[in-house]
Design the sequence.
């Protein structure tokens, strides 16, 4: 029996647009190198494919600088998908351009219609529940609208809080298996993972928390050797991808794909 929280047959990605260098960011740490980002993105897609999954690669959208971060556009569950309503105004048009691809994959597709907002980066689906962190991009009304949809399908949803000054809930955590979470100490300290087995990122390596478990691999950003070693010691098979350019616009491993 497969575990839908980390065993996937499909992923959707979108090639970075040249406009990605103008992507949203909390602080300016330099302009992303587009050529390097293309190389990194290709390595990411190849790693997803290495697991045997089918990857649907969508073309770049120049009018949406952050559109490479497809995770924010939808929530893909086993038996339904929900199109999100991004809280960042410059990203709201991305969803309509993702909808056709999602509808081709699912019979049941719902939409967050508003007035609330919700971005996929704030949602962690574990083996037992859907955790949603309220953030600057995801508000209570968005969470309430999503709750009404997913509970009809038998999912349990729990509202938690993304740490202040952190873009998305999953900036600080990832699912490693149905019951194990990789998290920063600051997020775990909030108590939101009580009852789960939690592995912490090493001190100074908080940016390693945004990883993905995708079939046999944990795919994580390169450059976090202590966290990578800790994960290996815990039996996980690691693939490291350079993320220096996406990191300049607050993006990481989970942001780059929808997985189902
Ligand atoms: N640059 C990623 C985001 O802010 O949505």
Sequence:
């Amino acid at each position: 029996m497969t575990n839908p929280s980390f065993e996937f047959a499909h992923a959707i990605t979108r090639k970075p647009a040249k406009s990605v260098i103008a992507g949203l960011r909390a602080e300016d740490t330099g302009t992303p190198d587009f050529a390097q980002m293309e190389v990194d993105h290709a390595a990411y897609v190849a790693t997803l494919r290495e697991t045997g999954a089918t990857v649907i690669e969508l073309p770049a959208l120049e009018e949406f600088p952050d559109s490479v971060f497809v995770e924010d556009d939808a929530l893909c569950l086993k038996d339904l998908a929900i199109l999100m309503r991004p809280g960042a105004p410059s990203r709201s048009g991305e969803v309509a351009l993702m909808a056709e691809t999602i509808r081709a994959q699912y019979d049941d597709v719902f939409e967050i219609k508003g007035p609330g907002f919700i971005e996929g980066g704030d949602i962690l689906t574990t083996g037992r529940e859907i955790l949603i962190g309220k953030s600057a991009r995801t508000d209570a009304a968005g969470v309430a609208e999503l709750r009404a949809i997913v509970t009809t399908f038998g999912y349990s949803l729990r509202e938690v809080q993304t740490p202040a000054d952190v873009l998305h809930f999953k900036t600080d955590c990832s699912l490693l298996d149905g019951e194990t979470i990789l998290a920063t100490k600051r997020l775990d300290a909030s108590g939101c993972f009580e009852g789960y087995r939690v592995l912490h990122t090493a001190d100074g390596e908080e940016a390693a928390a945004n990883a993905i478990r995708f079939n046999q691999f944990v795919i994580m950003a390169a450059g976090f050797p202590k966290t990578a070693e800790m994960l290996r010691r815990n039996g996980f098979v690691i693939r490291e991808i350079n993320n220096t350019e996406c990191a300049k616009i607050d993006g990481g491993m989970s942001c780059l794909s929808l997985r189902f």
Observations:
- The chain has six helices and 15 strands.
- The chain has a mean pLDDT of 97.
- The two ends are 15 Å apart (CA to CA).
- Helices lie at 34-50, 96-105, 140-152, 185-188, 225-233, 244-247.
